């Protein structure tokens, strides 16, 4: 029996308490974990419960909402509002911020995408949840302004991927990246990946991007993709279309994930607060690079961007140093200054 059952498993709550000694942070991560367990149940029963298809509405950025988008959003909002430790929430599915009533308010501000990649849900492809956590500013009772800050002020970031296993990956500011797998037999997230880092020497040569947008990319991005395909050691193309799935693979296997700015979307397509910043924080603290590519006149770190509104967008170039350097080298050939990694 001892080979099959761990009598001293490190659960999510136990890990956060031992790591931070912060009771409010334990409550917050527990609320997020509870909502993700509920989302897991909904995703796994989507066909039986007739949760496929559109809800007949659009979200804050004009995307059609799936039934599961709406349900997942409600689950996260209910869990976080009633946790007693949050004061303001920002969701991809809500145009305006959600202000927690004073009687239930705490110190944390949470931005989240409740069901990333939901356009894939009807064909049973991996989807996920992404979140970032800030503390409200001194003297604030909780408003959108508390979240309009760069990634330097983000205290915790994470994602959950719903697939053959359900995994939560998160990090605290300045700390290591850790992974937890949902053990359905006990209903708890259990610590399974310690100090996640990009593979040594860059790992597998994989590039991940939507090449259907290639005609609108700037020339250095096109040249980088040509290099990935045509170099002496050609890269493999892998693109799921769910950011959580693509980023999770990139961290574990190596490679690069790109959703660059282009002529059609000059500010990028992904949202900064609940996609760009949390994923950039995880990528960098796992030893990778999280860049905007050429954006607003220069190459920047995603974590240095300051959102001007809660649904601000940003371009993404994320991956291992070896592979992001390929992109930077193409910018240098075009006369654009970029870092050497």
Automatic annotation (TrEMBL):
Give the top-level enzyme category: hydrolase
| Pfam families assigned | FBPase (PF00316), FBPase_C (PF18913)
Question: Its principal location?
Answer: cytoplasm
Q: Has keyword Transcription?
A: no
Query: What keywords does the record list, in alphabetical order?
Result: Carbohydrate metabolism, Cytoplasm, Hydrolase, Magnesium, Metal-binding
Q: Which residues form the Fructose-1-6-bisphosphatase class I N-terminal domain?
A: 11-194
Compartments, as annotated in UniProt: Cytoplasm
Q: Does the keyword Metal-binding apply?
A: yes
Q: What is its EC number?
A: 3.1.3.11
A Gene Ontology biological process in which this protein takes part is: fructose metabolic process
A single GO CC term, please? cytosol
Molecular function (Gene Ontology), one example: metal ion binding
In this protein, which residues make up the domain named Fructose-1-6-bisphosphatase class 1 C-terminal?
A: 204-328
Required cofactor names: Mg(2+)
Q: Which reaction does it catalyse?
A: beta-D-fructose 1,6-bisphosphate + H2O = beta-D-fructose 6-phosphate + phosphate
- What family is this? Belongs to the FBPase class 1 family.
* Name of this chain's protein: Fructose-1,6-bisphosphatase, cytosolic
Q: Which organism is it from?
A: Phaeodactylum tricornutum (strain CCAP 1055/1)
Which gene carries the instructions for this protein? Answer: FBP
């Amino acid at each position: 029996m001892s080979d099959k059952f761990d009598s001293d498993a490190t659960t999510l709550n136990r890990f956060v308490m031992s790591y931070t000694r912060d009771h409010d942070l334990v409550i917050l991560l527990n609320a997020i974990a509870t909502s993700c367990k509920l989302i897991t149940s909904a995703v796994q029963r989507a066909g039986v419960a007739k949760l496929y298809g559109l809800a007949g509405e659009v979200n804050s950025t004009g995307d059609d909402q799936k039934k599961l988008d709406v349900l997942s959003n409600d689950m996260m909002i209910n869990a976080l509002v009633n946790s007693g430790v949050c004061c303001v929430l920002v969701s991809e599915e809500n145009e305006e911020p959600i202000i927690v009533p004073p009687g239930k308010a705490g110190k944390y501000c949470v931005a989240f995408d409740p069901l990333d990649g939901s356009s894939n849900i009807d064909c049973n492809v991996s989807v996920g949840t992404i979140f970032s956590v800030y503390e409200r500013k001194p003297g604030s009772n909780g408003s959108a302004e508390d979240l309009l800050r760069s990634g330097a002020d983000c205290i915790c970031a994470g994602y959950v991927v719903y697939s053959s296993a359900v995994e939560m990956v998160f990090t605290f500011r300045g700390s290591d990246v850790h992974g937890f797998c949902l053990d359905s037999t006990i209903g708890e997230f259990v610590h399974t990946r310690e100090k996640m880092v990009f593979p040594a020497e860059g790992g597998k040569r994989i590039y991940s991007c939507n090449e259907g947008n290639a005609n609108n990319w700037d020339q250095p991005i096109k040249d980088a993709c040509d290099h990935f395909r045509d170099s002496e050691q050609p890269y493999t193309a892998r693109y799921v279309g769910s950011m959580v799935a693509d980023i999770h693979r990139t961290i574990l296997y190596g490679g690069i994930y790109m959703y660059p700015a282009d002529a059609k979307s000059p500010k990028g397509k992904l949202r900064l607060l609940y996609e760009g910043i949390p994923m950039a924080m995880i990528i960098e603290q796992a030893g990778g690079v999280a860049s905007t590519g050429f954006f607003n006149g220069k190459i920047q770190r995603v974590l240095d961007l300051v959102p001007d509104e809660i649904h601000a967008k940003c371009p993404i170039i994320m991956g291992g140093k070896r592979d992001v350097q390929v992109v930077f080298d193409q910018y240098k050939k075009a006369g654009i200054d970029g870092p050497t990694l």
